[in-house]
Amino acid sequence: MSTRKIGVYICYCGGNISDYVNCESVRDAIAGEEEVKVAKTTMFACSDAAQQEMIDDIQQQGLDALVVASCSPTLHLFTFRGVAERAGLNPYLYIQVNLREQCSWAHTDVPDQATEKAINLVKAGIAKARLTEPLIKTRIETVPRALVIGAGISGLRAALALSDLGLSVFVAEKSDKVGGWVAEFGRMYPHDRRGQDLIADLVREAGLRENVHIYTHAELREKSGSVGDFTVRLDVKGEPVTLSVGSIITTTGFVPYEPASGEYSYGTDGVLTLTEFKRLLDGSEGGLTYRGRPVDTVTYIYCVGSRGSSQKDTPNMYCSRYCCNAAMHASSLAHELSPAVHQFHLFRDIRTYGKYELLYQDARQKGAVFIRFDGEDPPQVEKSNGRFRIQVKDMLMAGEELDIETDLVVLATGMEPRPNQALNDVLKVPVGLDGFFKEIHPKLRPVETVIDGVFIAGTAQAPRNSAESVASSLAAVAKTAALLKKGYVELEPLIAVVDPETCTWCGECVGSCPYSAIEKISFGDKEIAEVNTSLCKGCGACVPACPQGALGVKGYTDGQIRAMIDAMMIDMVEASRG
Amino acid sequence: MEHGGGMAGDDFRPRILVFSTVTISDIGIDMAGSSHMHYPPTAISIPLPCSSGIRPEWVLYALTHGFDGVFVAADGTDCPFLPDCTDRTAKVMERAQNLLREHGLKPERLKMAAICSVCAEAFQRHMKNFFTDLKKLGSPGKAG
């Protein structure tokens, strides 16, 4: 027989719950449950007074499990785990029941039924609490070194910042030179400094640091270990280099969108991508010329390869966000080179957000003409007598058809994720539908990935300009420092576990684990599966893979799920059958 | 096949067990509640880390222990653990439907849809539709 002593607290949430759920009925329905030693309602469970009352009850009545039925766990799971801890109870003996978002607020129209549901939710919470066990976080000593993959502006700046913090840094660059795209840029907005000068400064500074090591021709081949203590093997110019690092920052950058052949006549001499046009501008002096001939007219077409616009099979649905600004800046530079040049900007929408609006104003003041077209009815480009003829319907002039003759067509092309399957296979960081590396949470955890200790930054994560890329890489540096400067990490214990008695080692679970966290070990006179606690993320993908039912996830065990289902039946069977 | 004898008719309120996920679909279901978007209160959730970790046996257990339908509010492409979560979950649910058939239960008692962290309307719609469908099916009765 179980000997659990469970405390259950049902929160009014100041009326958010109790206006629709009869909390006293819920309390009365569960107060007589076996092992429920304390059953109380409270105005605000999260208030200091209520928390102290729980601590007192736990200590005075010797409670060994805690259930709070209040709001969503996303708000207060950690609050009440903290209450348990402060009372001397293992935090994993706490169960939160969501009575607000998933009950009272969802069923404001039927309070009686909301109360029935609340009773079942709380009973299920108690059933789960009965089967809780104390869990201990795994502590791992961390290595004060980091690996940065990719030596563009994001990676180089991250390396210097890590070095400033006293952490050793290895930078692995796949190509034969450092600096990425910015190393090829001329004048950049808004400081007007040349991209290659910015990179040269960063490289010079890195060369002065004893704790920064940059490898070129270097690719990551293997990664083992876990957060705080990875072993990585690089291939550097054909030679293996093994390093021990505590974290990995991935700044592998982007590739520019390459238009399909014939997309806006791309492939015809005189149709350039934004990258190619920028190169032309950077290499021009004393007037804008193309192939030795002065350029009289430049026409830009926006959103090429972005926002669903593409002649490829799978168009990119996202906005690349940098291209409007970059096209405006190019327009301004073109005007400086040849003040008499005519410039037409054919756009769908202009997204010169924040201070980049000034670039837009500047381009207009210098005489550039902006024509808005419908994405469903894009401009037509054809070569005509050595120049180009563009037909476009001006949406701001009731669809009036315009003919533009131009020397150059500049396609404002966006960014695409760099194809990097081999690296992805080693890092195991998920990519989104757009193909860019995916963070855990776009707002709250923007540079962390589900692989603890592996961070993402720059344009490997999303289209960005260089300022935004560096900001994100420095955020990754801050997260790395928070991880490695403490000296240890604690890993969440809600992970998979094998029942050694039931397991017969068929190996099915190994293939189901996306993190290579399951291995074979000897157990007595047989072989069984074992979960590497530092690699397992607790997703549970292995659980249905096991034909013996020998795998479970702590906190979500087979016994707990079945007990919750049983508990949910008790009243509802009567209630739902009228 | 199902043996009949289960409830049906106007008073019958089918009970739906929702397997949700802690980081994705629970957030969407929370949002439905926060927006006071009503759905049948007989729909009740058990959150798990990831929808690919649902044992087919749990689906069978729920349907033989009082629930009339099981809805898997899957992570879909937003899954923080698995890029192929949808495919994996779909395969597990296919196994679960086969298990239901073996026990004489109708496979349509198990439904799955991706519910993202802002999919409040989709969740509400799925609950209402599934409730209506199950009302027509009646309860499984004492099957298998």
Give me some keywords for this one.
heterodimer, A: 578 residues, alpha/beta, Rossmann fold, FAD/NAD(P)-binding domain, 4 domains, five-stranded parallel sheet, 26% strand, disordered C terminus, B: 144 residues, four-stranded parallel sheet, 4 helices, 4 strands, 38% helix
How are the elements arranged and paired?
The complex is a heterodimer of chains A (578) and B (144).
Chain A (H helix, E strand, L loop, with lengths): L5 E6 L11 H9 L4 E7 L5 H14 L3 E6 L2 H14 L7 E5 L1 H5 L6 H20 L7 E4 L3 E5 L3 H12 L3 E5 L22 H14 L3 E4 L2 E9 L2 E8 L2 E7 L1 E4 L3 E3 L14 E3 H9 L6 E2 L2 E2 L2 E8 L18 H15 L4 E6 L9 H9 L3 E4 L7 E5 L2 E8 L5 E7 L1 E6 L1 E3 L3 H7 L26 E3 L9 H19 L3 E4 L4 E3 L9 H5 L5 E6 L2 E6 L19 E3 L4 H19 L2
Helix pairs in contact in A: 1-5, 2-3, 5-14, 6-7, 6-12, 8-9, 9-10
Chain B lengths: L15 E6 L3 H10 L8 E6 L7 H9 L4 E6 L10 H18 L7 E5 L5 H18 L7
Parallel strand pairs in B: 1-2, 1-3, 3-4
Helix pairs in contact in B: 1-4, 2-3
In words, what does this structure look like?
The complex is a heterodimer of chains A (578) and B (144). Chain A is α/β, with parallel strands linked by helices and 578 residues long. In chain A, helix 6 (153-164) packs parallel to helix 12 (466-484). In chain A, the strands form ten sheets. A five-stranded parallel sheet of chain A has the order 8-7-6-12-25. In chain A, strands 14-23-17-18-19 form a five-stranded parallel sheet. Chain A has a four-stranded parallel sheet with strand order 2-1-3-4, with helices on both faces. The radius of gyration of chain A is 31 Å and the shape is globular. Chain A has four domains: 6-135, Rossmann fold (3-Layer(aba) Sandwich), CATH 3.40.50; 145-253 and 418-489, 3-Layer(bba) Sandwich (FAD/NAD(P)-binding domain); 257-414, FAD/NAD(P)-binding domain (3-Layer(bba) Sandwich); 496-553, 2-Layer Sandwich (Alpha-Beta Plaits), CATH 3.30.70. With 144 residues, chain B is of the alpha/beta class. Chain B has one domain: Rossmann fold, CATH 3.40.50. Helices cover 38% and strands 16% of the residues of chain B. Chain B has a four-stranded parallel sheet, sandwiched between helices. In chain B, helix 3 (85-102) links the parallel strand 3 and strand 4 (110-114). Chain B is flat and about 40 Å long.
